[in-house]
Known about the structure:
Layout: H1 2-23, H2 33-46, H3 52-57, E1 68-72, E2 76-85, E3 88-97, E4 106-112, H4 128-135, E5 140-144, H5 164-177, E6 182-192, H6 194-206, E7 211-215, H7 223-228, H8 243-255, H9 263-268, E8 280-286, H10 295-306, E9 310-316, H11 328-340
Parallel strand pairs: 4-5, 4-6, 6-7, 7-8, 8-9
Antiparallel strand pairs: 1-2, 2-3, 3-5
Amino acid sequence: MNKILWISVLILLFLITSLRFFDSKPALPPVNTNIIESKQAAARYAFDDLTIPFLRNRTYSSNIGPMVEYKNYSAYNSFLTSYYSDGLKINGLLTIPKGNAPEQGWPAVVFVHGYIPPTLYKTTEKYIEYIDYLAKNGVVVFKIDLRGHGNSEGEPSGAYYSSDYVIDTLNAYEGIKNMAGVNPNNISIWGHSMAGNVAFRSAVIQKNIPKIFLWAGAVYTYADFAKYGISDNSYRPPDLSVDRQKRRKLLFDTYGTFNENNEFWKKVAGTNYLDEVSSKFIILHAVDDQVVNIGYSRDLDTELKKQGKNSVLFEYKSGGHNISGNSFVPAINVVLQEIKK
């Protein structure tokens, strides 16, 4: 009887041990919080280049490359040329007035295009009448092909959540400043549509650009982007797999969408860094613009004046997003007269 009891106890112990063995799960390795924290820190650092303090602390430098004559007009010559920005070759169309330059040199403007599908962009197309009006009236115009557009090197990164186009613009500005025959103290930046953001941020970063022309521009405070949006039927969103979209997703995953109370986003909005900016802002917009709401321009003008900045807003009853038709000559003449002052 004792033998049977002993065997029963052994069987019971075997069953208990077996159940515990099969019910157990392999132990998971401990979570390495240092790796998680380092990845989060890397993500945060990756977007420092979007902030105004970072962009103010970096340097901008370039020179205009070899010029190949494109067309010879009665009052000016146009050339195809290039310069370097972040090691990338950026192309552009450069016009130089004929005749003797003024004693201080020709006034000049860096002309930054609005949104055009990058694969459809061509250096010698679009803005022809704008450039012609300024060039035949004694202004050096440098219309740059932002990176990734036309034959310019690099990838098109978009204006609002990348600083690439601002960097291209400020390097072009320095290139023109180094150009013989140009008045280094009278170089302006002109930006249309998305390049309104680019021109405005360029002014805030450089602080002392004499004149900034915002032609139907958009997205200045970033809060205005949420308020007004943009209705551009020509916009072609890039594939989700491209680096631009991956980076933007990481940006929003890291900091969320724009929040005016978020410390990171505060550093992105140029309106928070106007104290030392001496530029004059000339804002032009048509009331019937169906792409970019005129509210962008009105709000910016109000904010600039509130902060004691030199700003003037010109509104046109018609002209649409390009301020064309009957409004074009009055508007482009405002630009010319401001440049010539």
